[in-house]
Design goal:
Blueprint lengths: L1 H24 L4 H8 L3 H7 L9
Helix pairs in contact: 2-3
């Protein structure tokens, strides 16, 4: 059971990172993403370094 929980948690973390990446790519500021997620903006910045993402 613990193995499934770890897999599920990792999968959810990966999905969250993909969503953050997609939102950042669309030009949404990390402070706004962090506000919606209820986390500190520094956490979002560490997850996806916005300066390295090519925006449209």
């Amino acid at each position: 059971m613990m193995k499934n929980n770890k897999k599920t948690n990792q999968l959810l973390d990966d999905i969250k990172k993909l969503l953050v990446l997609a939102l950042t790519h669309q030009g949404i500021q990390s402070k706004d993403i962090a506000s919606v997620l209820g986390v500190d903006p520094a956490i979002v910045s560490r997850m996806v370094p916005a300066r390295k993402i090519k925006k449209k």
